Structures are given as structure tokens and as C-alpha cells.
Amino acid sequence: MGEMMTIATPVQPIIDGLAFRAFHARLLALVAAVILLDGFDIQLAAFAAPAILADWRIGSGALAPVMAASLAGMAFGTSIGGWLGDRFGRRPALIGAVLWFGAMAMLTALCTNVTSFAILRFITGLGLGAAVPNATALVAEWMPLRARNYAVTVISVGVPCGGIVGAAIASWLIPAYGWPAAFVVGGALPLLLSLAMLRGLPESPVLLARRGGADAQIAAMIAAAGGMAEGPFAPPPAIAAGGHPFDPALRRTTIGMGLAFFAALMSVYALLSWVPVLLSGAGFAMGSAIRGAMILNLSGVTASFALTWVMLRIGSRRTIIATVAAGIAALGLWSTLLHWPEVAPGIVLAGLALTGATVLSLQVLLLTLSSHAFPVECRSAGIGYSISFGRIGAIISAFGAGVLLDQPSGTWLFFAMIAAALVLLAAGALIVDRHFPGRPRV
């Protein structure tokens, strides 16, 4: 009589059903710290720019290639890092990205001219870009079902939060110790974090199940997370037969997500880059204009959590389309307030807050959707390709918005560009055919 066939246990329902415990909190804290430092390092060049201009005695236009080089490096890094995460594992790809951008940031402190600065910002951008898709995939594949979308939202708002924290640190560090000190700190913190990651960051159980031969490791991790299961374990059924985001079953989703991220990052970077200039042009003092940028970020972070709650109840497609409509309305209101004579500054800033709450939160909603839309066999790569396409939009906005603002009706053209990008974002979201529905009413 032959041996009885052993039936493999699907690993995803086990993870879905776990309670959120200290294990998940530690994992989320580690990954959130990665993205926080990622956001800090992304904006380091902007924080250091005034001091560098004075130190090297150059004009602000000379640093334009530096800003573009960083975004280009992130675009390549996001695609490469996503592929590496699917091929070799989320854990090594994420730790490697942190080590990379930490070490390169420290080397940037030694730069003495624009050329070396631009080259090192491009190389640093490779690591900065590689971190996001692997962080998102790892969190999505470890969090219990009820906490998953909120956990991805925590990761998604890490970049603007890193910018806020980084601005606070750099504002006293650079005047006291010079701009190289900001890069030393911005590099040393990720290197220290990587030591904690080596000790406490687990690999994705779903990815291990897909590879096979890791049943004992998966069982031990599930036990550490508060569950109990024995192997053999089975991964979710493969959707992309060839294991990449452009397989026929995923092609429509990949194209739609790429367009949506392109438009989202074009809108977000246009606002992040030019809000202080717009407020200054409307008569705000420099300090108030910079605080306006803080309001923009904070409103986007706050609204992201509220809109994630809405998305879980009415579904991703309806939430994204409704937020786009609200974003276009907020842009129209804020652009009118900026040009309206004798409007109280508080009202102008309230319009800015509405704009940030809608436009900036769209990027977070898309990242949450991408963690659902792409299956385990190509999740990191799918998220990576989508964000890489988005980086192209960011690069275009960095240059295009500046050109538009130099025109006679530049402010109106600037807002029209962002509104057109939001329409494109809605079109991309409608192309995606792997949205998640809202929770059924009981």
C-alpha cells in the first residue's frame, strides 16, 4: 500500500487569520523606520541646497541636475529593487537597499562639486527607490487581513513624515555643523537600523511557501506571530504564469497602475516643489511659506488614514475616483483663493490643506491598491514598475512646473497641469481590473 499523499496547507489564510500581536508591531516598526529614513534621505539635497549654494558659490540652477539625478536613480532603483525582491527575497533586498542608501549618503558628505554630487545622488537614489516596493510587499504579506491596509498606509506616509522629521533635524544641524553633517547623520541612521533589521526582520512566509523547502522556517515564524500550523505549506495560486507583471492576466492592471502612479507623482512633486514659491508670490513671508509646505504634508498624512478607512468600506475604485474629483475641486478653490484680493492668510492655508488632503493622499491609496492588485509571484516587481513609471512623472513635474510658472499666466497653467494629471490618474485607476471591493454590509 503506497504512502498517503500529504495535502499542503495554504499559508495565506493562516496569516490572514492571525491576531495583530507584538510580532507584527515590531515588524511594522522596523519597516516604517526604513521608509521614514528613506523620506529623510530623499529630501536631504533640498535641505542642504541653500548651504551648498553659499559654500560652492553657485546659482540655484546649477543644482537642477542634482535633483533630477536623484529622481532618475530612484526610478531605476524601484524597478531593480522590485525584481530583486521577487527573485531573492523581500528581506535581503530591503536590508541591502538600506545599507546601500546609508553608505552612499555618507559618501555624499565628501563631495566638492556639482558633478560628484549629482553622481552620488543618482547612486543613492538606487537604494532609496529599491526600499519602497520591498517594504510594501513584506508588510502586505505578513499583516493579518484586518490590519493589512492600515499597515500599508503607515508605510506609505513614511516618506512625507521622514521629510517633516528631516526638516526639523536639518534646520539646526546644518547651521551648527555645515551641510556635510546632514549627510553623515542621514547615512549613519540607516546603517544603524540595518543592524536591527539583520536581527529582527523576518522573510515573507508567502514567498518562502512559493519557493518550497522552508516548511520548518515558516512554521517557526507563524508560531512567533502567535499562530500554529504544520507544513507542508502552499502559496496562493499563481496568477501571473510567467511570474512578471506584464503577463496577460496582469497586463491591464500593470498599465493602469503605471499611468495612475505617473499622474500621482507628477501632481505630488509639483506641489511639494513649488508650494513655498506660490505662497511667497501671494504675499506670504518666507517663514509662513515654508510652514505652508508643512501644512501640505501633514494634511496629506492625516487624510490618508481617513481615506483608507473609507476605501475599506466602499472599495478602492470608488474611493480613488471620488478623491480625484475632490482633488480637482480643492485645486480650483485654492488657486482662486491665491489670486483673490484681501483674503485672510488662514483661509488661503485652509485651501492648501484641502489640496494636500486630497492630492497627496492619492499616492497612498494607489500604493495600498498595488499591494492587493499584484500577486505574490511578482508583487515587488509590479509595485516597483508602477512607482518607476511614477518617477518619470515626478521628473517631468520638477522641470515642467518651473517652466510653466515663468509664463505670464503661469500660476493658472501650473494648476491646470495638476488637474490634467488627476484626470489621467482617474483614467489609469479605471483601467485597473484588480480593485478590491468594500466590506459587505452586515
TrEMBL record:
Domain Major facilitator superfamily (MFS) profile, first and last residues per copy: 27-437
GO MF assignments: carboxylic acid transmembrane transporter activity
Annotated membrane topology: Multi-pass membrane protein
Stretches that traverse the bilayer: 58-81, 93-112, 118-140, 152-174, 180-201, 255-277, 289-312, 319-340, 346-369, 381-405, 411-432
Localization in the cell: Membrane
Primary localization class, coarse: membrane
Classification via InterPro entries: MFS (IPR011701), MFS_dom (IPR020846), MFS_trans_sf (IPR036259), Sugar_transporter_CS (IPR005829)
Alphabetical UniProt keywords: Membrane, Transmembrane, Transmembrane helix
Top-level taxonomic group: Bacteria
Listed GO CC annotations: plasma membrane
PANTHER family reported in the protein's UniProt record: CARBOXYLIC ACID TRANSPORTER PROTEIN HOMOLOG
UniProt protein name: Major facilitator superfamily (MFS) profile domain-containing protein
Species this protein is from: Sphingopyxis macrogoltabida (Sphingomonas macrogoltabidus)
